[in-house]
Design brief:
Elements (H helix, E strand, L loop, with lengths): L3 H14 L2 H24 L3 H20 L3 H28 L3 H19 L4 H14 L30
Helix pairs in contact: 2-3, 2-5, 3-4, 4-5
Length: about 170
């Protein structure tokens, strides 16, 4: 008999060392799997199994939504938040209506997301977070410095912007 503790430790190490991008892909794939199994259970009139799979998929949606960082993601994270909100409500609708159209709607949303996330190079999320932290705590190259011993631009008759626009 194998030691389950060793298997559990391996899984924890694997998950802890996994890139955020790979973790998101795995979560999307698990949602797809749960939804397909819920669809099959619904067709087979197995309400218990369907509910179990829908609830698990919905928990994944909630976790993904809760993990969004709007300070880094901006418009992209807002769009994902809207998609996750839509999917969350579609999960509820499946449980109420027992109509697989809501499952299909979720699968249609997840498919392009999982494909897009598979294209993101590992470490991109960590790099973005690091850059955001450096910008928040370090010098901002977009802000002009005023030297104390020189007259401010307003005093010398020049008008300059405090912020420079850069690409």
């Amino acid at each position: 008999m194998y030691n389950n503790h060793g298997v559990q430790r391996y899984r924890e190490t694997d998950i802890n060392s996994m890139s955020k991008e790979k973790m998101i892909v795995l979560l999307y794939e698990k949602m797809q799997s749960d939804l397909l199994l819920a669809q099959r259970a619904l067709r087979n009139e197995d309400r218990v199994e369907m509910t179990k799979k829908i609830n698990h998929s919905q928990r994944i949606v909630s976790e993904l939504r809760g993990a969004l960082d709007h300070s880094i993601g901006g418009e992209v994270s807002q769009n994902l938040d809207n998609l996750y909100d839509f999917m969350f409500h579609q999960h509820l609708e499946v449980l109420v209506d027992l109509n697989e159209v809501h499952i299909v709607n979720c699968l249609r949303v997840i498919e392009p997301l999982v494909e897009a996330w598979r294209q993101i190079p590992p470490g991109t999320a960590e790099n973005a977070a690091r850059e955001n932290a450096n910008t928040a705590t370090g010098p901002n190259p977009a802000v002009e410095k005023v030297v104390p011993n020189e007259p401010a631009p307003e005093q010398s008759g020049e008008r300059t912007s405090i912020l420079s626009v850069s690409a």
